[in-house]
Amino acid sequence: MKSLGTTILTACVTLGLSVSLHAAATVHCGATLGTRFNLEPAASAVPQEMESLDFIPNRVALNEDLVVAGAFDSRGTTFAQPSTRTNWDGSVSGYYVRRAATTSCAPQFEGGLPAFTANGNSFSSNGGVVIAADPARDAFFAVDLRYSPGLGGFSAIGLFRASSATLLNATLCPNGTHTTAQATSCWMATHPAIIGPTPSGGINNADDYPSLAVDERPTTAGKGAGNVYVAYVGSIGNGIVGVELVACTNATLSCSKPVTVSAVGESVFFSGASNGNVQVRPDGKITVTYMDQTSNTDAAVELVQFVSCTPAGAPTAPVCTAPTTVATEKQSFGTFVNNQALSSQNMLAYTNSRHAHRLEADGKTITTFVVWDRCAEYFTFVGGLGTNGISLCLNADVVMSTSTNDGASWSAVTGVNTGGGHQFFPSISTDASTGTVNIAYYNTGHDPLHKRIVVSLNQIAPGTTTVGAPILLTTTPIPWDADPNQSALPLDDFDFHFGIKARGMGTAGFSRVYASFTSTGDRFGIYKGLPMPEQNNNLQEVTY
Amino acid sequence: MKLAKCLAAGLLWLLSILFAANVQAQDATTTTTGCDTVNGTQFNLEPRPNAVPQNSESVAFLLNKVGAGEDLIVGSATEFDLASRSRFVNNPAAVGVDVLNAFYVHRSGAGCTPNLEGSLNQQSFTPTFLAPSVVADPVRGSFALGAILGTSGVLLQRTTAATLLSTTACPSGTETILSAANSTCWPTVAVASFNPNFSNNLEVLSPQLAFDTRASGTGAGDLYVAAQVLNASAFPATSSIQILSCSGVTLNCSVSPLTVSGADTFGAHPWIQVRQDGAITISYWTFTRPFGQLPNPIDIKFVTCKPNGAPAVPTCSKPLLVTAVNVVANFNPGDNNFGSSLFPKHVSRRDAGGGFTTFLIYDRCRSLNPPEGISGTVALTDPVCTKVDVAMTLSTNGGTTWSLPAPVISAVGHQFFGSVALDASTSTTNIAYYSTQNDPFLQRSQIFLSQILPGSTTAEPAIALTSASTDPNAGIQNFIVSSATGVTDFGDRIGIAAAGTGTKGQSRVYVHYTWNNVFGTSSGTQQPDQNNTLVQFSY
After folding, report:
1. Does the pLDDT at position B483 exceed 70?
2. What is the pTM of this model?
3. Which of A479, B149, B439, B512 is deepest in the core (most CB within 10 A)?
4. Which residues contact residue A378 at a Cβ distance below 8 angstroms, ignoring those fewer than 6 apart?
5. DSSP B204-237
6. Average pLDDT, chain B
7. How many Cβ atoms are within 10 Å of B503's Cβ, its own excluded?
């Protein structure tokens, strides 16, 4: 997103100076807030949240990346104003694409992942969008939650594929806000797949929290190369909730049956949320982390679990080991009391884990980094513990643990950021080109009242497990509750993740981290003719 | 050498004595220099560990009663307790008793810090509830304090400036409800009964006090108590505005209250004042349709009463319409997670011609933004208001006609919790309120003051009394009380009082309000804590 001249100049300087793989971080989408990454009109604007994103470097032009983000978009909900719904296709699974070589970080088009039919049932969107790119095969994938009213209601996961060529095609994917027909032409060239359809019947019978990863190795690299993996939380029978993993082919989205990767016969959660996070190692192994609520009497104690799987080549399911425990987290947080988990943050929030892998310089060792958020201090003076033993958290931190032996053993838990205020919702991504690990999270420590949020980034330099100093992806603290559509619905505020992805060229200054997060600071919406802050999915780009 | 050392030591001792005497002299003559102007001054003595919220303030003061330029200030506020473990209860047998109100007194020293504090005199442990009110009578040098007692009366207590200034009768520090000081500090205690027949179906809400501060005339020195009386036996429930008159010295009150809201079926949030001619004026709002119906437009009403001398109740006019309001009475100021209500308040200024101009203000929601999916099915308790302002209307004919309501100031953001006080010495009308106008997100509030000068009916440019802002939703107060529901309680009012000598520069206005910027400590972690806070402005 920088000019060609700048690029060439930077490249020359870089080569001339033979600098290291790591350059000072520079933000590009507005240092204070990032850039609003949707095209929603201001009038009666509604919230976006729960972001995800990925990108293919230089796919638009030299140093101009093709960026695809996803978010829950309330334009598809019933409470959106009619004027807001007019130009939206009714989907709550929003996608937002930047494909033009302009100085702005704003997207060129957006839309909602469309409804489609599978096995005779129509499946419509239900949020939970996650995006993954596959640079090797020049394609993007999106998963989301799906719902079908057929047979009394099905919960399922939808998997979409769009090639970069399609996303760059102004006829198939025109600029602007997509109609249903435009969303279909943009995302349905490959028929989407339905994964894990489950008859709905309450929280323990609904698929939830999908996660997505692509084996980005060249197609000829070995078994599983190019496969697409989807992990999600869902019913595994008898009212038990487990973590499921599915392997799909890249080009046709032909998927395996789900394989349960959480412990046999064990429910991973009793209340709240426990989302599986799937990643693919540089050697093609598939890994999943998740939080395991060990009992329904003390949900504060959770196991951070890790599973390693060997690819079998989609649509054959991978073969997975039994879960190993990264850490026993005795101070998780969750929204169990008065719809609030973190002090001054009246919104849904749960401890969750994310992980990433890094191939070390020896070409063999793979270091796995697992991050999660936890409560350093509970409020227990009088309010007491809530149901399931979790009380209000006064100080949340982001911590991590590492393994160099595929999860057989884990390092002691160390802090990523344990400063004042809350640090929560960590996301992690390794820039494989340099070996730099990037960890981003929300941080209230910069607000004197520990309420308003900035987005912070910590980097771990190649070859080390030492967390570097925080970098601010946004500098203006924003309130989580500034959107007038949220006040009456505190349960519908920020969810427990946002998107981050790092990729690069292997040269200092040419790596970038994109983050897509929730913000209320960009502009005012107009409500009944009067301006008020509104909630958006934002984008920030950092180069280093 | 020894002699030199001895002389030097003696000189040093002499100097130290002189220096100490000088310090004491300085202490004795220190004048009030005003409260902190960044945040205001925390107006309680609460320790920081496990601090609890205070809100819904009231304030009264006696000008120069401590010394030249130093005022005797009494504030009151709702002070929550933690699981019925109020810091004003030091008796284990009393654990479980709710103490929900307190007073705070500044009587010496520079600045605005309080010297003593305590709870209302409720030795029977009958709980008193929410939003106490305090008033002062400068002619008689007295204060009166009132709060709801049980469900059917208002606990009244009176003291004098001399008593409050006595460190024997009112020791510095925190008075517990069983301490001797609790009785000696507020020696006159009575109950104003709005439910003389002790009906279980009646409930007293939102009591307000007003002194007749005249030196002479029928009613002079009397104390008036207004309250909302809810009748739950009717379906739908009804509510009326009732008043009592009490002797300002003995607190001997009317046996039965007088209903002043006429045929209005649901009067709420009364505000009572006494004009400089002794007439009693009451404002309130009422639903225009039976309670529970939707929509239910609101009328703001005004009543004028003639005093008959306590304990006889006054003789009152029928309620006169001030203005109609077509938006709900309770709303969230924008994206804030707490409620504001329109709560009309008024003062009457004697004009040069001998007549009175009555200024009535209320929090006005211009428009709501309820999500369609919700508003279509249920009535929201506190819907999101896209713009709250402090609206003002005025009458120069005793409330017969009123001007078109208009904002006290035109500013972005929300202006709310408007409160008004008259400085009779200069005929200056003071209006204080929160305003979010300087926050980019229109959430964090400063305290502002708008003044209407003598002879004028328009407000001068607003003055920011606090340079910092506070966030009503920051902290853990929505969890800290045993009945917490997760919704922020920012109270429903702030207090304001104004008085002067009539000389320019000798008038002062105090605003007593809720502020979250002083942290408490909970489980070893610092968290924003809701405190009653005081700021002063001189003019």
Report:
1. no
2. 0.89
3. B512
4. A331, A385, A391, A392, A393, A394, B523
5. EEEEEEEE---SSSTTTT-EEEEEEEEETTSSS-
6. 87
7. 9
B window 41-100, beta carbon within 8 A of A: 50, 82-83, 85
The amino acid occupying position A138 is: D
Least confident of A481-485, B362-366, B389-393: A481-485
Four-CA torsion B273, B278, B279, B281, nearest 10 degrees: 0
Read off the tokens for B28: 């004795």
Size of interface A-B (CB pairs under 8 A): 155
Residue A481 has its nearest CB partner, among B335, B372, B487, at B335
Task: Show the tokens assigned to A426.
Answer: 């960590």
**Interface residue A475 vs chain B (CB under 8 A):** no
B526 to chain A: which residues are within 8 Å by CB?
420
CA distance B180 to B341: 39
- Separation CA B298–CA B287 (nearest Å): 5
Residue B163 and residue B170 in contact, taking contact as beta carbons nearer than 8 Å: yes
Q: What is the ipTM score, two decimals?
A: 0.86
Q: Where do we find the tokens 């960026």?
A: A67
> In terms of Cα–Cα distance, which of A488, A490, A347, A87 is closest to B376?
A488
Contact B522 A394 (CB under 8 A): yes
Give A482's contacts in chain B (Cβ within 8 Å). Answer: 335, 441-443
- The 10s digit of each residue's pLDDT in A424-443 is 999 999 999 999 999 999 99
Of the two residues B93 and A375, the one the predictor is more confident about is A375
Task: Name every chain B residue with its beta carbon within 8 A of the beta carbon of A478.
Answer: 441
Rounded distance, CA B444 to CA A512, Å?
35
CB contact under 8 A, A486 and B332: no
Q: Is A535 on the interface with B (CB under 8 A)?
A: no
Q: What average pLDDT does this structure show over A377-385? A: 63
Residue A266 has pLDDT above 80, yes or no: no
**Segment B435-458 mean pLDDT:** 97
Cα-based distances in Å from A480 to A78, B206, B335: 22, 33, 10
